[in-house]
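request received
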Amino acid sequence: MTADPAIHAAAHKLFSFTRVWAIAANTFRDLVRQKVFYFMLVFALILIGASLALASINSRGQLQTVIDVSLGAMGVFSILLAVLATAMLLPKDIEDRTLYTILAKPVARFEYLAGKLLGVVGILALAIVLMAGVFCIVLWYWRGREIAAIPFYYDPAEAAQRIELVRSGTFTPSLFGGVFVVLLRSIVCAALTLMISCFATSWLFTVIVSFAAVIIGHLVAIARNVWQNPASFGVDPPWYMDGFLRLVTVAFPDMQIFNIVDEIALGTNVAPAIFATIAGLSAGYIAVYLLVGYVFFIWREL
Amino acid sequence: MSVPAITIKNLTKRFTNPSVFSRGGIVAVDDLSLTVEAGHVYGLLGPNGSGKSTTMKIVLGLVTPTSGRTFIFDKDSRDVESREAVGFLPENPYFYKFLTGEETLHFYGKLCGLRGAALAARARELLALAGLEDAAHRRVGGYSKGMLQRIGLAQALVQEPRLLVLDEPTAGVDPAGSRQIRDLIVSLKQRGITVLLCSHLLSQVQEICDRIGIMHRGRLIREGPLEEMIAIENQTELVVENATPELLADLKARVAAAGARVVGEARPQQNLERYFLDVTRDARDE
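response:
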């Protein structure tokens, strides 16, 4: 066994994307080999089932209903995948002691967490791309049916106008922006779950607290409004209630920023600046959760 | 004088009681000071719960000490950089079950900054060293206990560390595998690699360690060169081959005449491990 001069050549870097990438790729591969994509079958069945049910209702709302059902299902499945897949990562590595062998290498704990999150982001992106693919096929089918349903007695110019209206109103930039927001929301949920798993002592605790945090996150906007402007709600909260409202506002993610998806499902066109704002806020949440998780992880006895 | 591989200064680790309703805690390591010189094989011994594993984890930066400091080649072991020089094999290691043996080494190699052809060559070299060439493309989930231990040792060596920390490296391994691992440790020592070894197999420790420390209830109660510690100062062992009864009688007479005393007389025995390995090798060759 001879020493390779390349082996000790490089000086240690405080942060190495190579190390983060190695952990991310491994996490991605782990989740893929655990067959997490079985849920895709359920998603496809829901969409196909919903499509068949649509055949019996008024044709006017079919396309919109397909979009509504699809974005809703993508949202639910992506949050489920984000929380369940992320919650098991850290406990599993601790239980199997693979964490010891990883952190005994020149790997900073921050790099480990960043790698794990990046791996989950990869899985979420792939899952959402696959779901969006199924969604587009179903939507394309229903768009064809809607175009075919345009009455033949229209004059050619009016018919062409109606066809163009259906075509341009289906696969809109806002629709794909909505899919992007679904991805951002799932990444925020994954970062939140990873942070919780850094101090949690069991997988179940992480899952329950993460889902609770996501649900509470939908009430953050209300809590913030009551805290900042109690008079407009006709209340004068006592100090402990005021403290509670502040805590909810600061400690939980405001999940209502992602409700733009519901607007898109209803056919609203959304300006690119709004997507940029949501992306910026999501990046802020992800960074904060990663940093807080890192602080918990440093304190944790392995 | 070379820089010590491990320096432990006044190390104390107190684990707080997980219950918030009870006070106090458990002192796992109590004011431990220790130096492992570079190039030595150091055996850290002690009964279960004596603080060996906690000491190892603190040295590797996995656990934060309550007080005191530890250094690896003069670098504070809280710094990630200190782990550039260390390879670690935990007790009963498990690796990612979905990875093959080769992929496992590639993964750990990348964590150490290796890549490309150098990493591929290193992985092949270590698989050969660990005797796992035939299992290189099998998933680790299907490895036997001994194979897991050997792939664990291979991953510990992936970046050519100057210090190897081994926690019960032969636990659960059959005698042939155990012998392989021991021979490997000896060859690493010959190449100047420092080894910190925790093991309950005292005969094995005796065979390979230069120096030992014995811990009990978190304290280091004995420490020093192995030969000095276990030698009986006023006795000498003489092993004679083909001695006739007359020669033995003559020797005894001379010993008595010189004022010394023959304490014991016995036929040397080979150890059971050597006997077992010879028998199983013969059976395999037949």
